[in-house]
Amino acid sequence: MLFESLAYTDERRVKLIGHQLQEVAKSWWLTTKRALEHRGIDIIWKGQLNIEEYVAKFSSLLRFSPHVSGNEEAAADQFINGLNPDIFTLVNTGRPNTFSDAVNRAKGAEAGLIRQRGASYSVQSQRKP
What we know:
Blueprint: H1 2-6, H2 10-38, H3 51-61, H4 66-69, H5 72-81, H6 85-92, H7 99-127
Helix pairs in contact: 5-7, 6-7
């Protein structure tokens, strides 16, 4: 076996396998995406989680990525990259270094967008007779 012949540590083994799995998953997705598009099927992501739901889902999935869960900066990066575009733009400014800072900024950004959209809606609705 490759690991025994190269005398890899457990940590190095996990990193190597993780990298290999990422490549396999990426290849699978690209092939599947092309096949679906070729058949005229649009690929969309249904539903949009609010920040609380996203944090809960993200946190539950961290256990499958020990290399991310054990690294505050990596967890923050992965969390930020999964945000919807409006919130991503607001949170990514000044790029938080910790997961908790990223979560707090995302919650603040979401609250601000909700207030802003609510104000826009109420102003527009007042203009109608």
